[in-house]
Design goal:
With about 120 residues, this protein is mainly alpha-helical. Helices cover about 55% and strands about 0% of the residues. It is built from three helices and no strands. Helix 1 crosses helix 2 and helix 2 packs across helix 3. The longest helix has 24 residues. The radius of gyration is 18 Å and the shape is globular.
Length: about 120
């Protein structure tokens, strides 16, 4: 017979107590931000990016905070749970779960492309 895989992973890497501890999903975000930071620093040092080296951390932090986290949450609300808009405070209940990767990607694209357009027109 054919072998098959059953997804039965624990979402927690380890438990501090009952249901509290670092999660695999969060570790994925942290590693992605770290990789983005390191790759962007290399690009700046090679002269392939216009951003000054000392601003790379701020740029990645802005993308992480506003793009991925806020955009991912709002993407979840708009695409999967629009009924949360009836009670807007429920959008802040992140412990109940719900993030959308495509919402985060849309927000990162908007957040990284839009400031470049503004600075190009001002300067």
């Amino acid at each position: 017979m054919f072998a098959y895989y059953v997804h039965d992973l624990d979402p927690l890497i380890f438990r501090l107590w009952d249901n509290v501890g670092p999660r695999w999903y969060g570790l994925g975000y942290v590693l992605a931000f770290l990789a983005g930071f390191l790759i962007y620093r290399v690009l700046v040092r090679r002269g392939d990016a216009d951003l000054p080296l000392e601003k790379v951390g701020d740029f990645i932090t802005g993308c992480a905070l506003f793009g991925v986290i806020v955009g991912g949450r709002l993407g979840y609300v708009f695409f999967y749970k629009p009924e949360m808009l009836r009670e807007p405070i429920s959008i802040l209940r992140v412990w109940e779960g719900g993030m959308s990767s495509h919402g985060g990607m849309i927000a990162v694209r908007g957040g990284t492309g839009f400031p470049g357009t503004i600075s190009a027109t001002i300067w």
